[in-house]
Amino acid sequence: MTTTPSPRTASRADGAPSALRESAARLDADDALAHLRDRFLLPEGVVHLDGNSLGPLPAAVPPALTDAVTRQWGTDLIGSWNTNGWWEAPLRVGDAVGALIGAAPGQTVAGDSTSVQLYTALSAAAALRPDRPLLVTDPGHFPTDRYLADAVAGQRGLQVRRVPPHDLAAFLGAEGHRVAVVSYSPVDFRTGELYDMEALTRAAHDAGALVLWDLCHAAGALPLRVDDLGVDLAVGCGYKFLSGGPGAPAYLYAARRHHAALETPLTGWNGHADPFGLSRDYTPAPGISRARIGTPPVLSLLALEAALTAFDGVDLTRVRAKSLSLTSFFLRCADELLTPLGFTPVTPADPDRRASQVALSHPHAHGLVRALAERGVLADMRAPDLLRFGVNALYTSHRDVLTAAAHLRDIAREGAYDPTPPAAGTVT
Amino acid sequence: MTTTPSPRTASRADGAPSALRESAARLDADDALAHLRDRFLLPEGVVHLDGNSLGPLPAAVPPALTDAVTRQWGTDLIGSWNTNGWWEAPLRVGDAVGALIGAAPGQTVAGDSTSVQLYTALSAAAALRPDRPLLVTDPGHFPTDRYLADAVAGQRGLQVRRVPPHDLAAFLGAEGHRVAVVSYSPVDFRTGELYDMEALTRAAHDAGALVLWDLCHAAGALPLRVDDLGVDLAVGCGYKFLSGGPGAPAYLYAARRHHAALETPLTGWNGHADPFGLSRDYTPAPGISRARIGTPPVLSLLALEAALTAFDGVDLTRVRAKSLSLTSFFLRCADELLTPLGFTPVTPADPDRRASQVALSHPHAHGLVRALAERGVLADMRAPDLLRFGVNALYTSHRDVLTAAAHLRDIAREGAYDPTPPAAGTVT
């Protein structure tokens, strides 16, 4: 989230060195995914590099929502639960997300927030490994992941161990037999470092532990293979690379082999085996339906479903290749234009260790991101000193990247920003 | 939910006895709230008496959602969290609901599903009364309330006691000192019976217990006074009498006196005292903000906010008076037209004990409700044998009521319905 209304003043890279301009032009000319940008309604004059809490508006969303509101709700009314597929939407949209994370149908459900899905997944994991007292999470994990790990551990008598992914193997060597679940993200949300999901998953399994992946910063940006890797549980949001809109419903994946024993803490009626039978006791539905909770926010869910059509026919290996091309080019621009001005790239130069964002540290990150926004370049920042630039291969161009770097250089060189840190409580 | 697409074939009461027709016309002519019907986009030829999982489309919703999607999301992009008030929306919409349930501002938050809010409220109540082992709920409570009472009790070592509201005083006389929380709805969702919230709240408090009200079937239909009655906690959905749309976000009310000690199980980052500080540990926000969990489904939340404007300037005591006039008239129609055909009203005749619906029992409820829908009369059913007709004083007329009763008489008299019970798993 940024603190500034988005303006529309500039998105040109005219002031950049000609070698970079020519590289951007050549890379964009060779971009086989360039046409996908038309699937998004990007405002004129905006460079959208905010991979945080909102992607741009996919072109498929406005007509889908108009239909959902005026025809489905307004005209078909309550019959829409059946005739327009509202009741099945969490499973249908779940499968659409599943296709992007390497999950065969019937293992992913969409609805609720990432926090609720995380709580469900952490609780279910603890219940699947009742004799193991440790819950391993990343000290650098996104706050809500850490808070909910603490909450679930406290409620279930587990202990939390904060182990950086790079130290997991050593930790498991000593304590692995006591670990119930390893709860990680494949991406460090600040630095953009990409961890080795396959190796970490195997290490957890070798220790007899389950693995729970938070895919918020990965789904839609690179190929994921939750089924192939034998992942146990995964969650993720709908609003970053999936562009599902503000607060788009999240999703939960549970591998089919766990369904029969999957105990969810929030036994809402939508997850009942016979939801309309009004039976006295809770009997979980077979399959992933048992991870449903209450009635989902259908309008937001249908917006997400429409947004996901931006991936129709798109090969995620190509998305990954373009994403790496974009971040590599960003790092080159940063090297030439920004490091001389006090910016330090913290995203790994090794492409195998780089997700779909570039983070630069600078002591005035907040003011710089605001100044960028005033010029139409939307990035975001993470306290205290990180500027984050998310690239989305579906709509970001190399020219966008150069534009952002050139504006940032100009702003820093001219001191054209407010160095005051944000007030406490400001939405950043 | 109904099993049939809504059709538009008929909504006329021509075949009804003239005395009833004249009564309906007179009552409608005297209806000071009749103009409020224009705040809803009711399709031609439909009588909407389904107070279940979806109200009709409020006229304010389509333009509000178009603005939210095209301007706020599409153009203002991520800055909308600040400039368009997305971040504050759960509190702002919470206060708008609060105004309808008698809650002063700053005690109600909107977001998540009713099931999630119930889980939070039940867990918080248990934590506020840690030395008391009993959780009292209504054996006739809506399924999700029962399932979640069982879940929370199991997770926190409480025992559930299922006590009908009419038996609460006697139960508390014997066991009151052991009761942590009484979790009730003021309305029996099947029969439409209205319980005495004031007396039940006082009884719980006299025993030192907390009271948690599920207001799903009451909010927006009658004046509620949660602050005045000293209610501790309340939850409710946004999609019945509030007409907030399919799966509209639910709400949670916690009396201000409990805020400082309110422990929520789902410690998502939106409820943190400094959500953007990314601090290591969870510190709950002051006030009702601590009941926020994850990022809310903003589009669905803004649809609910727009829907609530249908109550602007509306006096809920007048809504209640008209609702009683409608249900009284429905019972009169039922008495004259339907009881001779095997229908039995199960809604109390005493207006003080009647909420805003009329329920009739009939062994072929499912087929009859389907046949009504085919004629444009939308009701719903509850297994095995109840037809439910919800009236909403904001848009229901006495003529609507008579139309429904007359069609139902015709269908029953002609046997023009399928007596086969619904298949298991059918969305009813």
Folded structure, characterized:
Two copies of one chain form a homodimer. Chain A has helices spanning 18-29, 61-76, 80-83, 89-101, 114-128, 143-156, 168-175, 197-206, 226-229, 298-308, 316-338, 365-374, 398-414, and strands spanning 47-48, 108-110, 134-137, 159-162, 179-184, 210-214, 233-236, 251-254, 344-345, 357-361, 377-378, 380-382, 386-390. With 428 residues, chain A is an alpha/beta fold. Chain A has two domains: 18-33 and 314-414, Alpha-Beta Complex (Aspartate Aminotransferase, domain 1); 62-311, Aspartate Aminotransferase, domain 2 (3-Layer(aba) Sandwich). In chain A, the strands form three sheets. The first copy, chain A, has a seven-stranded mixed beta sheet with strand order 2-8-7-6-5-3-4, sandwiched between helices. Mean pLDDT of chain A is 94; it is low at 1-8. Chains A and B meet through helix 2, helix 3, helix 5, helix 6 and helix 10 of A and helix 2, helix 3, helix 5, helix 6 and helix 10 of B. Chains A, B: Pathway: Cofactor biosynthesis; NAD(+) biosynthesis; quinolinate from L-kynurenine: step 2/3; Amino-acid degradation; L-kynurenine degradation; L-alanine and anthranilate from L-kynurenine: step 1/1.
